[in-house]
């Protein structure tokens, strides 16, 4: 298996790469363009952006310049908190689609479960899906309670839930919930923004396998059947973060890393997010 061929099959049959490049806080312009070009040359086929990241246009330019056939790529973008509502979501999608310079987006996600809004917004994503404008639709930062609430009225079950997921926040119950509902879990901040690379247990396991701590962290997510999207704008890191298909963590390694869980987040808990200031 290689980065180019390794994919999970979503509930609707669409193939989604197990590994993608995250581009949060990759500056629009040369920084994000070079990162995406390096990733695509390395064999990455999945890029995770969002309207909030303010770099969709540059991501679009990079995918055009790369020469990689469109049907080999898997482009994810997300609707920000001030883009909720049925009509607003349709308009937001169109803005993102144009910036990316694509006819169809592979995966469109609701970025955060804005209270009182996400069910109506989901209706718009269902329409985009039925109209063939997106190949898959999903959510991000949804807890099992948010999903329960959404599923009461949803016609289509989200195909993906992208949440914070790494050894300090091993969301086992949410992972099981998603697996039981045929929702692919995708983990953001797999490296703890770099913090987890310094963890002794991770370093020891990396040494044992002759791999880097980053590779061990990505591999841990993949072995839990969680899609991983490490971010880097550094060419050498982009390349090495993808070398995760030539080794396997054994049961002891997995148990050790699972044991690092502290239910601790680097980001916000979805129920404590400052929605008021981000929905304006
Ligand atoms: N849905 C959401 O709400 C949400 C929230 C956060 C993130 N995300 C997505 O998830 C992606 C990943 O999360 P993240 O960007 O927050 O954090 P991350 O991937 O855990 O960590 C990225 C940081 O680690 C550094 N790094 C990467 N590879 C490294 C390596 N091999 N050795 C040393 N340092 C390394 C990067 O530095 P350099 O770039 O300088 O190399 C960057 O500072 C995001 O880019 C975004 O696409 C989604």
UniProtKB/TrEMBL annotation:
Substrate binds at residue 111. SUPFAM superfamilies: NAD(P)-linked oxidoreductase (SSF51430). The record marks 78 as: Lowers pKa of active site Tyr. Residues 20-261 form the NADP-dependent oxidoreductase domain. It comes from the Bacteria. GO terms for molecular function: oxidoreductase activity, acting on the CH-OH group of donors, NAD or NADP as acceptor. The keyword NADP applies. Pfam families: Aldo_ket_red. The active site is at residue 53. The keyword Cytoplasm does not apply. Keywords: NADP, Oxidoreductase. InterPro entries: AKR, Aldo/ket_reductase_CS, NAD(P)_OxRdtase_dom_sf, NADP_OxRdtase_dom. Belongs to the aldo/keto reductase family. This is Glyoxal reductase. It comes from Marinococcus halophilus. The lineage of its organism: Bacteria, Bacillati, Bacillota, Bacilli, Bacillales. The gene is yvgN.
